[in-house]
Amino acid sequence: MGEIVGVVGVGQDITERKLAEAELERVAQDLRALIDTANAPIFGIDEQFRVNEWNNKAVEITKYEKEEVMGQNLVDKFIRQQYKAAVKRVLANGLRGEETSNFEFPLFTKDQQRVDILLNCTTRRAGKGKIIGVVGVGQDITDRKKVELELGR
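Request: output the structure for the sequence above.
Response:
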């Protein structure tokens, strides 16, 4: 009595799960490449307005490298005082699930050049719909604004 006479094992085929995980990873990489190479500035913030997304076009337009902005409070650090309240309001609305389209504001680059941005803000959600931040997709409308000024004279 008490002698081991054999072993019972249970196995499960996880091939399909592994294939699904690999496909999910491929899709995530494709989306990352799409965001990084988009011809529009794209940024993301978390619930405390800290930057957690900053694509290549945002770097090109603002001259701030990704490493310089990640984790920084977007409004406090990168928006001029006279525009902070309006920008913060748009982002706060996004954090409540209220999305904004066609919000115009001036952004000032690292070397203090004015860039006019037309911004659309979309709420970012995790699983089960929990709001985790905002994604902003912009358009540099500086040249258009200059033409409008010239035509208005």
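The first helix runs from residue 15 to 37.
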